[in-house]
Amino acid sequence: MNLNILVLPGDGIGTEVTREAVRVLRHAARKWNHNLKITEGLLGGIAIHKTGNPLPEETVRLAGDADATLMGAVGLAEFDNAPPEKRPEKGLLGIRKVLGVYANLRPVRAYGALLDSSPLKNERVAGTDMIIVRELTGGIYYGTPRGITESGGETRAVNTMVYTRAEIERVGRMAFHLAGGRRKKVTSVDKSNVLENSQLWRRVVTEIGREFPDVALDHILVDNCAMQLVLNPTRFDVVLTENMFGDILSDEGAVLAGSIGMLPSASIGERKASGAWVGLYEPVHGSAPDIAGQNKANPLGAIGSVAAMLEYSFGLKKEAAAVNGAVEAVLESGRVTADLKPTGTPATTEQVGEAVCAAIG
Ligand code: IPM
Ligand code: MG
Predict the structure, then answer these.
(1) Which of these, 138, 204, 311, 335, could form a disulfide with 320 (CB 3.0-4.6 Å)?
(2) Atom 11 of ligand 1, residue of closest alpha carbon
């Protein structure tokens, strides 16, 4: 198969973890005889430095031409006080929108080897296996009007949470489809006791649920969901939610798995003429400036994102399973980075990447 991939390493540890993810991708392509073409582009803080724009035109063009995009992370401390329009994150939000990747899939699994790394008691977290489906191109992240205005001596800031029926329907269907191949349960998260936006969300998700009679649906308020994630994480199979709630809940979910460095994500859009699904793949973690450049970041979230790419964009299930199996084998072997609290000397980012390749064989 032809795998035409755009790589956007981004900022901070993004470049380091992406290097290992690409190592694993090259290894898998060689092993299963896929024709891999990798192009590299600029996104985030590095793109601002080199072009003045967090999402240069050239990157938009490259992403449009590629079958799938692999991203590291964006964000640099020097932009901490910059307005949203001028931040590296603007590039990430821009590319999600340009590619139309409306469904962000964030699987949260408690690996046996990592139970002791979880902040929860082992017996509570053991068996956790959920996937958070976060709407990614709508809601308060993109709604207008937005901005900060001054008038009559008062300063006012506005953001708008907006969803259309169509936006809720398409991400809702994605969640029910996924649940059909899993434990057949969707939990939809909203704040319908306060927000009209959530009332529409709940109504439309309930309607979509009727198209999938073999999948059970329950609704939960977002504050309660935050609590249930730590009280009873095994109750969740597919968690469906809007953009900002999903952002918050997926960080919470990530630590259940032992470390936010572990979590991959897949953002999926429509199907292309080539047959591949438009996809943007990135670890859930950020650019972590505090440990950048030290070869100690955990690359497993990025490597898991490669597995997700093979599976979702290209339908290469065997290859994806081999990468995921290798990640699990490396966890069992204890050859892991410092965030996973190894006994003895932690492995470097690079060593973990090499270990995953070796485990693939
Ligand atoms: C994420 C990140 C991004 C988001 C930031 C970096 C803009 O937190 O992917 O979860 O909020 O979507
Ligand atoms: Mg986030």
Answers:
(1) 311
(2) 247
Residues of the chain with CATH 3.40.718.10: 1-109+259-361, 119-257
Ligand of minimum distance to the alpha carbon of 106: 1
Query: Is 1-109+259-361 a CATH 3.40.718.10 domain?
Result: yes
- Judge whether 251 counts as a catalytic residue: yes
121-134 pLDDT, tens digit per residue, is: 999 999 999 999 99
Q: Which CATH number fits domain 119-257: 3.40.718.10, 3.30.1380.10, 3.40.47.10, 3.40.50.1440?
A: 3.40.718.10
Q: Which helix (H) or strand (E) holds 280?
A: strand 277-281
End-to-end Cα spacing for the chain: 20
Atom of ligand 1 nearest to the CA of 243: 12
Please tell me the predicted confidence (pLDDT) of residue 343: 79
Catalytic annotation, pick one of 11, 67, 237, 247: 247
How much is the pLDDT for 289?
Answer: 94
Is residue 247 annotated as a catalytic residue, yes or no?
Answer: yes
Q: Cα(247) to centroid of ligand 2, in Å?
A: 4
Based on C-alpha coordinates, what's the Rg of the chain? Answer: 20
pLDDT at residue 311 tops 90:
yes
- Give residue for tokens 């299963």: 32
Closest C-alpha among 81, 86, 10, 80 to residue 52: 86
Q: Is the pTM of this model over 0.85?
A: yes
Residue 180, pLDDT > 90, answer yes
